[in-house]
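During the no-cost extension, the postdoctoral fellow (Dr. R.K.) reprocessed legacy sequence entries with the updated structure-token encoder. One reprocessed record is reproduced below for audit purposes.
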Amino acid sequence: MRKVFFAGLITIGIATSSLGFDAVAQQPSGSPSSNSSSGAPLPSLPQTSPMPSPQPSTSRPEPNSSPAAPTSPAAQLPVEPPAPSPNSAQPPTTAPKPTPANDTTGKTAAKPVIDPENTLVMELKDGRVLIALRPDLAPKNVARIKELTRKNFYNGLVFHRVIPAFIAQGGDPKGDGSGGTGVSLDAEFSNEPHVRGVVSMARKPDDVNSADSQFFIVIGEAAPQLDGQYTVIGKVVEGMDHVMRIRKGSRALNGSVHNPDKIIKMTVLADEQKTGTVKK
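Re-encoded structure tokens follow.
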């Protein structure tokens, strides 16, 4: 009986050793890789053993990104950032204090000085909007916008992408975010913050030097995630209430607007003054 029992142990040990070798040999040799459409690798997840069998990949939105309306590659803005993690460092969230209507002496605050040659007049369905351009920040981009405006390029174009409390984007001749003039502009980034009313050039997410004709207006309190990433060309100095009434899109569709509002007409103020067509 002892000999049989001992021989049985040897047989069991050999079988266990053989099973362990087969299990290691059949384990997948590589770890799964992320399929990020942006090209930037996603953080790898902690591995557990045994590894699951690889499955065919399916097209899915990237983590932490909002679904976008189906368009071809075009000038686009980054999707609103996801809600911050409680443990992650974030910039201060305190809203900027409103500028007082009157100063300490009781006098009405002075209106910004208007340079007609560097002021755009944009007619919307609800009224007139003045945009003070900033050639001191972005001379080449400002010059191009004025050139297109004087060619009546923007007349009738729509605000195709309007995300509530974020931005209103327009200037695309195709009306879907995929169009432009075919002339790319180099980035002229500055330290100017993206606060309500600021006008910046839209671009492709993967190319900072791809701005063309599309632009956006900040309609939220502020968008610090855009600072230093997009070329600021000016700011709304009159008629911001009309901008805030532009028809908004669905967050679920990344701001895509059904039956969007149009830029009825856009001109340079100096040209209106020369022709005597300035509206009060």
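Residues 1-74, 83-109 have pLDDT under 50 and may be disordered. The two ends are 113 Å apart (CA to CA). The remaining legacy entries will be reprocessed before the final report is submitted.
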